Amino acid sequence: MTHVYGATVDNETRCTHYHTEVDIIAIKFKCCDKYYPCIHCHNEAETHPPEQWPADTFEQTKAILCGVCQHEMTIQTYMQVTHCPNCQSLFNSRCQLHYHHYFDV
Ligand SMILES: [Zn+2]
Ligand SMILES: [Zn+2]
Ligand SMILES: [Zn+2]
User: Domain limits of the chain?
Assistant: First the structure.
């Protein structure tokens, strides 16, 4: 299984900050190449500032992990779907409000 760092509260990537039914993805950070459930988890565990993925990496970079089935997808795929393409689990649509923390959008 892919290791998810941070303040996780279960095996589906929910954390102390975001832990509703639909909070089931982790995001790999460009700066440290580690999966964290959210930006707060990253910033509490790391001493460096978070780096956002540049737009030209969205198509190629697999930086999103589905916590339910462990499927990794590209940033572009993640932005286009509402459910996991592999296990159909619903993702949290409110994550869109936080894209700028993770992606250079
Ligand atoms: Zn980092
Ligand atoms: Zn968190
Ligand atoms: Zn899945």
Answer: 25-101
